[in-house]
Specification:
The protein is of the alpha/beta class and about 260 residues long. The chain folds into 2 domains: about 5-110, no CATH class; about 115-250, Rossmann fold (3-Layer(aba) Sandwich). The chain is about 40% helix and about 15% strand. The protein has 12 helices and 11 strands. It has helices at about 5-15, 20-25, 45-50, 60-75, 85-95, 115, 130-145, 160-165, 165-170, 185-190, 215-220, 235-250, and strands spanning about 30-35, 40, 55, 80, 100, 105-110, 120-125, 150, 175-180, 200, 230. The strands form 3 sheets. The protein has a 5-stranded parallel β-sheet. Strands 3-4-6-5 form a 4-stranded mixed β-sheet, with helices on both faces. Strands 1-2 form a two-stranded antiparallel ribbon. α4 runs parallel beside α5 (about 85-95) and α7 (about 130-145) packs across α12 (about 235-250). The longest helix has 16 residues, at about 235-250.
Length: about 260
């Protein structure tokens, strides 16, 4: 249940085109729906601005598909993260219009109008091609929830001229997500070039002393660019969720 859908429902009751009993039936699953293995949070869009997202890792394909179907019935945009092929095919068997991105490990189904809901501009940056799976998780998440996304991939500090060539793209965004492994230097460099929030995502890319992303995480936490904040290792989804909220707030008309 999105805020706009709730307002539409209440307006229909006010106009008399929908009986209160029918409206009550449609609101019966708020704030959550208990389906045995899960309690689907239908209230999250009203409370937090974005709907619940399905984290497929650890769930069976059947569980993932059932949660997906309950969210579809609620009319929200639906996203699955960390979906393997079995989970994705369980969803696609019921919803062939959903889109599976095997690189990002996401399954997404937009139900809202892309034109009506497009709000905010986010740049998703990654240091190397090996970081693309995490960057794509971020990009798909942001796009599913109505942001315009610019992808700027393979622009790491080992070839700084590649990053400088896309400075104009960086400066046009309202929030920037930067995914990097190895020593994790790229977010600090990006942060020094722009006047918007930079959300750093350490990736588990690198050799032994990268400690599966821990070295990049510590480097990003110690960034000298004060506009850089950091999420967990490989958490492209968390970075994008926050970036969408920032971009939406930035795109709202400001009072004079």
């Amino acid at each position: 249940m999105t805020p706009s859908a709730l307002l539409k429902l209440l307006a229909e009751v006010e106009r008399g085109t929908l009986k209160p009993e029918a409206a009550a039936d449609r609101l019966a699953t708020l704030p959550f729906e208990d389906i045995g293995h899960s309690r689907v949070d239908h209230h999250r869009s009203l409370r937090a601005g974005l709907p619940e997202v399905i984290f497929a890792a650890g769930k069976t394909p059947t569980q993932t598909a059932e949660i997906f179907s309950r969210l579809v019935a609620d009319g929200v945009d639906v996203l699955v993260t960390r979906a393997d092929s079995a989970a994705a095919h369980a969803v696609l068997a019921q919803y062939p219009d959903a889109i599976y991105n095997s690189v990002a490990r996401t399954v997404a189904l937009r139900q809202s109008s892309l034109i009506a809901e497009l709000r905010g501009h986010i740049a998703v940056v990654c240091a190397g091609t090996s970081d693309i799976p995490v960057a794509e998780e971020a990009a798909i998440t942001a796009e599913t929830f109505g942001a315009r996304v610019t992808r700027l991939y393979d622009v790491g500090v080992a070839g700084l001229h590649r990053l400088l060539a896309v400075t104009d793209d960086l400066k046009s965004a309202q929030a920037i997500i930067v995914c990097a492994g190895m020593e994790g230097a790229l977010p600090s460099v990006v942060g020094g070039l722009v006047s918007v929030p930079v959300i750093a995502v350490p990736t588990s890319v690198g050799y032994g002393a990268s400690f599966a992303g821990a070295a990049a995480l510590l480097g990003m936490l110690n960034s000298c660019s004060p506009n850089v904040t950091v999420v967990n290792i490989d958490n492209g989804f968390g970075a994008a969720y926050t970036a969408v909220l920032i971009a939406r707030a930035s795109s709202k008309p400001q009072p004079i």
